[in-house]
């Protein structure tokens, strides 16, 4: 005959240190914010999981599944992580998004001091957060936006002078100092659709198929992947319909070999001067993509958060699809939130192959360091 003891009917509660949520608190996991909260008896506060405060002793911690449960302790909200309001990260993203709108809507480029004052932050703090979120300084973001406005004006048929002033330049001299850098050619040639611009190109072969690399005077303007070299050349012609395409010589083919080498062995790295042509928003996205380390992936939602546009996941996907610099701007490192590969302009099989190679390269590097 077995006797069931009372304590067996009521097993001891799981200790906080053994709860999987405690590991997320120790890691200051931002993705856990909003899923649960915790309170600390010795300090009398409740916090979000990512709170940057000094780590509490788990024996003094209680975990709460809802914010109301955390409030019911009678403790006060932590001043550092503000568990009752938006997280610091979300607040910074909103602040930067507001600054981006201010830049885009201003007749003339606002100064760093004006942007920082509007955000209620010091100039140094604002500058640091803006770059962390967008990948660009406020000045670079403003320049990219004005360049996009000039390009749009010229494409819409405006005169060069009208496009310059409509974009917020208060003198043509200031614009012409940077015009070739901004447009990749003179404004008049850009207005003519790139007529007479010279684009050098060559096609190489890799285990993923054909690779076409094309460059302007400024830098590499296209890296295209595919099965048919002739189709890649036609694609290049469609992208630069009025430019003069010139087949690359032996020296240029060496550049193509570098790109092929990177595709085969990602650990080699790929450091090339680029001629990146896109809107200000696209350039923000592409800069964020270039900051993703080899062997890592992020979701479209994560990129949206990083550039201060948390609701722009569809626009992020569109910017990835518009990327004409395969592997140099690694849009293959962006996947869906559920881990699915999603679309890729050069085929899902190539995307998977690139990610597998980069993951293997990253693992090999870690083994060597260990």
Automatic annotation (TrEMBL):
PROSITE patterns: HTH_ARAC_FAMILY_2, MGMT. Binds 1 zinc ion per subunit. One of its GO terms (biological process) is DNA repair. Its EC number is 2.1.1.63. It comes from the Bacteria. Coiled coil: none annotated. GO terms for molecular function: DNA-binding transcription factor activity; methylated-DNA-[protein]-cysteine S-methyltransferase activity; sequence-specific DNA binding; zinc ion binding. Its cofactor is Zn(2+). Zn(2+) binds at residues 47, 51, 78, 81. The active site is at residues 47, 331. Residues 97-193 form the HTH araC/xylS-type domain. Keywords: Activator, DNA damage, DNA repair, Metal-binding, Methyltransferase, Transcription, Transcription regulation, Transferase, Zinc. InterPro entries: Ada-like_dom_sf, Ada_DNA_repair_Zn-bd, Bifunct_regulatory_prot_Ada, Homeodomain-like_sf, HTH_AraC, MethylDNA_cys_MeTrfase_AS, MethylDNA_cys_MeTrfase_DNA-bd, MethylDNA_cys_MeTrfase_DNAb. It catalyses: a 6-O-methyl-2'-deoxyguanosine in DNA + L-cysteinyl-[protein] = S-methyl-L-cysteinyl-[protein] + a 2'-deoxyguanosine in DNA; a 4-O-methyl-thymidine in DNA + L-cysteinyl-[protein] = a thymidine in DNA + S-methyl-L-cysteinyl-[protein]. Belongs to the MGMT family. PANTHER family: BIFUNCTIONAL TRANSCRIPTIONAL ACTIVATOR_DNA REPAIR ENZYME ADA, METHYLATED-DNA--PROTEIN-CYSTEINE METHYLTRANSFERASE. This is methylated-DNA--[protein]-cysteine S-methyltransferase. It comes from Rhizobium loti. The lineage of its organism: Bacteria, Pseudomonadati, Pseudomonadota, Alphaproteobacteria, Hyphomicrobiales.
């Amino acid at each position: 005959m077995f006797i069931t003891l009372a304590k067996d009917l009521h097993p001891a509660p799981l200790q906080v240190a053994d709860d999987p949520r405690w590991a997320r608190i120790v890691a200051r996991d931002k993705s856990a914010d909003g899923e649960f909260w915790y309170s600390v008896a010795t300090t009398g506060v409740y916090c979000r999981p990512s709170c940057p405060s000094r780590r509490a002793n788990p024996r003094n911690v209680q975990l709460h599944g809802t914010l109301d449960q955390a409030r019911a302790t009678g403790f006060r909200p932590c001043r550092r992580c503000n568990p009752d309001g938006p997280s610091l990260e979300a607040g910074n993203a909103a602040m930067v998004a507001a600054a981006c709108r201010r830049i885009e809507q201003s007749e003339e480029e606002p100064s760093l001091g004006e942007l920082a004052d509007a955000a209620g932050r010091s100039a140094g703090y604002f500058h640091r957060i803006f770059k962390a979120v967008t990948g660009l300084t406020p000045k670079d973001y403003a320049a990219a936006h004005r360049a996009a406005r000039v390009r749009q004006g010229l494409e819409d048929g405006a005169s060069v002078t009208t496009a310059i002033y409509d974009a917020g330049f208060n003198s043509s001299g200031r614009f012409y100092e940077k015009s070739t850098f901004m447009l990749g050619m003179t404004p008049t040639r850009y207005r003519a659709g790139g007529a007479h611009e010279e684009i050098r190109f060559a096609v190489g072969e890799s285990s993923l198929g054909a690779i076409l690399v094309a460059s302007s005077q400024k830098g590499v303007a296209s890296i295209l992947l595919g099965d048919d070299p002739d189709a890649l050349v036609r694609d290049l012609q469609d992208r630069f319909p009025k430019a003069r395409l010139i087949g690359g010589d032996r020296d240029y083919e060496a550049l193509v070999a570098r790109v092929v080498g990177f595709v085969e062995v990602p650990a080699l790295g790929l450091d090339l001067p680029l001629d990146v042509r896109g809107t200000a928003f696209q350039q923000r996205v592409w800069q964020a993509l270039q900051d993703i380390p080899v062997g890592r992936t992020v979701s479209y939602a994560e990129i949206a958060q990083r550039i201060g546009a948390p609701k722009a996941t569809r626009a992020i996907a569109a910017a990835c699809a518009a990327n004409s610099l395969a592997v140099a701007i690694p849009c293959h490192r962006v996947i869906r939130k559920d881990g699915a590969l999603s679309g890729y302009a050069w085929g899902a099989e190539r995307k998977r192959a690139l990610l597998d190679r980069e993951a293997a390269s990253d693992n090999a590097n870690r083994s060597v360091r260990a």
